[in-house]
């Protein structure tokens, strides 16, 4: 009955589907690590055939990329704090975690003013005053407008690393431990701020989320099309054997505002 | 309101999430073409680091595979009949097509008895007598039990090609033209029967589906956990630039039967 109602609502437009995914291209920026660490492979999309001698009736490509490429999902095993987590790789995740409510914290003005803007617990508490308590089991999405940037401005690398907005350590500790969120999503290349390696603990989003068996989403777009609360996110990574994450299509179901 | 009801139903188990995806491994069988055509790349999952010198705090892999690998989605541009279809590649598909109702045609007994079992229009009309008209815009899933087979028995190659069940040409013409389905899904490596190259037209599932801008799903599993009707499918391929298809996670929302 509820599923018939959902189908009808999708057909009439009472519920809309919003694509939060960036297009995967060979030049989409990926994370850059210091040279002492092994890098991710580049994105490659290589034609096998396109209605030609190599395949007269069909078109298809070979794909290659690192698990953490484009709009992608971080599973608990991606980080050392989640290495022993049960069902911590993408092939063993509970499917019921792949459909969950989402709230959106609008940090776009602050992020336009400061590349290193940090989302704080205080700002989250201000959000709760306006919208109510962040529900346990929800995705928290940090809207920064960063997805509108292209190329070098998107990665925003300087000599001391990336300068991109993200959460501070106390915000992440509080979201995971005091609010019991399902995961944290960003428009930037990481769930952590570009300078998050200098935080205490280093990379607090990775540290707290994955240490509690929770998830990350990165390189999201179209967050400005979501309400502050009330959307439902469909975020289902590829079922890669013992995978630490994967590119994925992230969709949001959104009640029609009109 | 409908989305809050959905979230509650997922939390209470009144709606369950069933994973219809096979695990992507290096030895999962992919389609084998005659040697005059270019083959798909093999699946490779190659470690970059795992809490070691190459990345002390993190675990990740590089991935490579053809677009039509494992549980995967066929977009219209995959076939010559769909080559000029608007929004025919995975990056341009309408997101509202990625969530849709599904019906399941149980052909498991017939497929156990005959590797080359063909689903006919007559069998579909028998299904309609029991369950009602196949809705326009629905996925039609052919349950064969094939996903329980492993390795060589799954591909089931002989000297004259694969011997696996699938739809006949009139079944596909009727489903696409007379029922207006969204797509057709199978447990086997193709949407077409293993011997479908000898049908008229050749590969009728590909021919009719993609020529009408419709979709295919292959290598599905767990179809025995779905009702004959009433499930809703989430099937959202990767947003690969001009991609002809992709591996994906396919989930079904199912009303609890108990
Ligand atoms: Mn990542
Ligand atoms: Mn295919």
UniProtKB/TrEMBL annotation, chains A, B:
GO molecular function: arylformamidase activity
InterPro entries referenced in this protein's UniProt entry, alphabetically: KFase/CYL (IPR007325), KFase_sf (IPR037175)
GO terms for biological process, alphabetical: L-tryptophan catabolic process to kynurenine
Protein name in the entry: Kynurenine formamidase
């Amino acid at each position: 009955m509820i599923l018939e109602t959902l189908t009808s609502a999708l057909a009439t437009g009472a519920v809309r589907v919003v694509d939060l995914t960036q297009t995967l291209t060979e030049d989409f920026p990926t994370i850059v690590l210091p040279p002492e660490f092994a890098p991710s492979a580049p994105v490659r999309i290589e034609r096998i055939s396109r209605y030609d001698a190599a395949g007269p009736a069909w078109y298809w490509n070979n794909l290659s990329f690192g698990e953490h490429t484009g709009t992608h999902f971080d599973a608990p095993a991606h980080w050392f704090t989640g290495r022993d987590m049960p069902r911590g790789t993408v092939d063993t995740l509970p499917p019921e975690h792949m459909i969950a409510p989402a709230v959106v914290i609008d940090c776009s003005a602050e992020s336009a003013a400061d590349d290193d803007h940090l989302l704080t617990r205080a700002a989250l508490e201000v959000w709760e005053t306006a919208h109510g308590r962040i529900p346990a089991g929800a995705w928290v999405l940090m809207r920064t407008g960063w997805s509108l940037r292209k190329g070098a401005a998107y990665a925003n690398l300087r000599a001391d690393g990336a300068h991109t907005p993200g959460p501070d350590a106390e915000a992440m500790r509080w979201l995971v431990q005091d609010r019991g969120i399902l995961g944290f999503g960003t428009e930037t290349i990481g769930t952590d701020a570009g300078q998050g390696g200098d935080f205490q603990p280093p990379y607090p989003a990775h540290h707290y989320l994955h240490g509690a068996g929770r998830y990350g989403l990165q390189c999201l777009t179209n967050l400005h099309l979501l309400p502050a609360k009330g959307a439902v996110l469909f975020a289902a990574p590829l079922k890669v054997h013992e995978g630490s994450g994967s590119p994925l299509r992230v969709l949001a179901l959104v009640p029609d505002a009109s």
